[in-house]
Amino acid sequence: MYSLTSDFPVTSQYTITSNSEGLAVYKSGAKTGYSVGVIDLWQTTIYIPSENATLKNVVRNTYTAQGGDSGGAVMRLNGIAGIHVAHDASYTYAVTVSRTNAYLGVAPVFS
Amino acid sequence: MEIHHSDQKKSVQERMSELPIIGIGVSGKTKSLDITLDEDYVTEADIPKWEKQIKNMVSRSDVPITIRISAAPTLDSHTSNRETTTVDPLKGGASVGFMDGTNNITCSVGYYAKEGGSNDLGFVSAGHCTQLTGYGQTGINVHQPVATTTNNIAVVDKEQYSSSTYCDC
Fold first, then answer.
1. Bridge partners (DSSP) listed for residue B124
2. Fewest Cβ atoms nearer than 10 Å: which of A78, A90, B65, B162?
3. What pLDDT is stored for residue B29 in this prediction?
4. Which stretches within chain B are classed as H helix?
5. Tell me, what's the ipTM?
6. pLDDT of B67
7. Exposed/middle/buried for B40, CB within 10 Å: 0-12, 13-18, 19+?
């Protein structure tokens, strides 16, 4: 988490709407902006050779993303699905937010 | 999942790590085990062979398996300062630059949160965005919209990205 050092106010820009598939996710990132997709795969583990890193508790999605979007929240109708971290040629990946909550100790809040 | 007799001392994950697997997951639609193989090591013609090998490692042979071949995923931070718009008040999806004086990485704001115990106000982003020189870096200045000497809006307080936690948060 990043502690704010000034009176820089924080607001939410997400507008969540219904989707007939029920698994819709909405991502907002600095590079590609706002993008809608669906969660395609659950409980995913991915290996990133360039970093020699294995990430668990990832969801695979169909929204669009590129370099610079890492950190952007991925939202579902009932709250935060995860944090965007990576993509490959066909899919995008977000770490699930429960892992983040574990050390934050509180649920994320919206304004 | 369980392992066949000859490999009982190895976990599925250990066996999987010996294959060119870059993704494992469960499909919500098809209820199948979804395996992604690295295109640098596997061709479409090899899929039946890999499917047989993977099924041999999983005791429940009735579990459907879907195999996909793809280029490996890459992390979505970047090191160039391409964004120019300062967002005030700060919003989810805004560009932020992480800088330690020498190195910098640009990422996005996630969501607003409070830290348990201290109730410090802050926001969440991806853990790997703080990997300027190594794992577990804190105290890094966060600038908006990119890493410059101005508009320092935050300091990295906690970082969980590492090969041991398997988390990027």
1. B111
2. A78
3. 73
4. 12-16, 47-57
5. 0.83
6. 92
7. exposed
Instruction: Answer for the pair B26, A57: CB distance below 8 angstroms, yes or no.
Output: no
pTM over 0.90: no
> Residue A59's closest chain B neighbor by CA?
B25
> What are the structure tokens assigned to B167, written together?
């988390």
Contact status, residue B136 vs residue A97, Cβ threshold 8 Å: no
How far is the alpha carbon of A18 from chain B, nearest alpha carbon, in Å?
19
Q: What is the pLDDT of residue B16?
A: 59
CB spacing of B96 vs A30 below 8 angstroms: yes
Q: Nearest-5° angle of CA B146, CA B108, CA A56?
A: 135
The identity of residue B119, as a single letter, is N
Instruction: For residue B93, give the chain A residue with the closest CA.
Output: A29
Res. B167: pLDDT tops 80: no
Contact B154 A72 (CB under 8 A): no
Helices (H) and strands (E) in chain A, counts: 1, 8
Contacts of A40 in chain B (CB under 8 A): 27-29
The residue among B130 and B46 whose pLDDT is bigger is B46
Q: Which of B30, B77, B91, B107 has the most A C-beta neighbours within 10 Å, making it the best mutation to test the interface with A?
A: B107
List beta partners, residue B25.
B34
